[in-house]
Automatic annotation (TrEMBL):
<dbReference type="Pfam" id="PF22725">
    <property type="entry name" value="GFO_IDH_MocA_C3"/>
</dbReference>
<dbReference type="Pfam" id="PF01408">
    <property type="entry name" value="GFO_IDH_MocA"/>
</dbReference>
<feature type="domain" description="GFO/IDH/MocA-like oxidoreductase">
    <location>
        <begin position="129"/>
        <end position="237"/>
    </location>
</feature>
<protein>
    <submittedName>
        <fullName>Oxidoreductase</fullName>
    </submittedName>
</protein>
<dbReference type="InterPro" id="IPR055170">
    <property type="entry name" value="GFO_IDH_MocA-like_dom"/>
</dbReference>
<feature type="domain" description="Gfo/Idh/MocA-like oxidoreductase N-terminal">
    <location>
        <begin position="1"/>
        <end position="120"/>
    </location>
</feature>
<dbReference type="InterPro" id="IPR051450">
    <property type="entry name" value="Gfo/Idh/MocA_Oxidoreductases"/>
</dbReference>
<dbReference type="InterPro" id="IPR036291">
    <property type="entry name" value="NAD(P)-bd_dom_sf"/>
</dbReference>
<dbReference type="GO" id="GO:0000166">
    <property type="term" value="F:nucleotide binding"/>
</dbReference>
<dbReference type="InterPro" id="IPR000683">
    <property type="entry name" value="Gfo/Idh/MocA-like_OxRdtase_N"/>
</dbReference>
Amino acid sequence: MKIAVIGCGHWGPNLVRNFASIESVDKVVAVDSNDEALSKIDKSSGKIELKKDALKAIEDSSINAIVVATPPETHFDLAKKALEQNKHVFVEKPLALNSKDSEELIALADEKKLTLMVGHLMLYHPAIKKLKELVDSGELGDICYAYSWRLNLGLYQRNMNVLWDLGPHDISMLLFLMQKNPLEANCSGRSFFGNRQEDVIFGNLSFEGDIFCNMHLSWLDPLKVRKMVLVGSKKMAVFDDMHEQKLRLFDKGVVSQKYFENIEEWKLGYKTGETIAPKIEDGEPLNIECNHFVECIETGKTPLSDGRNGLEVVKVLEAMQNSLEKKGENVSV
């Protein structure tokens, strides 16, 4: 199998490295118009070719799959051209900048029976996989609420705000864990150094069952934080990608007296049991993700983060952006 990675700036070299490590991948073509970017590609695997012209790579009949790791405003055009040339396509998040374009890519991939996958990296994190198992098993009980923090100093993007840059990670995780789409969204933010692009965002998603989720996204923070907390009726879980223990399960909660004659008899108790770090599988999320793409091409399996998953994330982003422009009004998803 021969795969071309278009875009070798910040993230592309990591994709090149991981695809080159896969045994069934014979060649990886690193594509970028910038000579300096290409010069930084690790060629030690002996599988790497360098090209400067993205369109020629897409039209190259010897290439089986295209990986799009360019700025988001180019995702739709490059992915569409690749699908039209009968290439399997992996698109870094977000799939596109609107639902209409996302739907067109899905329809084209379906028509041609090609694999279309979106780079929702966190769905391939072993700790998130384990957290999903805990949620599905009922270990946490009913989910009451969740919140996530994705903060750092930079990296500022020129053509998008922090919602579209960082938001896909947390939105894709929430949809995966909740196994449903939100009903409503609201969002507020400010641009301090973002040239009118919001660099700090606070967003809320409401799910069926009165589940409430909050997100804080920022390029303007003194701390690098990658954290999500799920609070259940039985137990609570913390995913912290910057912590040595990526996932911790807290046997903590509130115990309410079920029966009482009047409000004076109503009492609450607090459960404070043990904290454990569940065993999680080894593996680098990006390597797992790249292997999954190759496996889906080879077997015809539907990717975990397929085009439809990408579309649902884009719909939430659109609703949050709409709310942002309406100064925080609730918007249906």
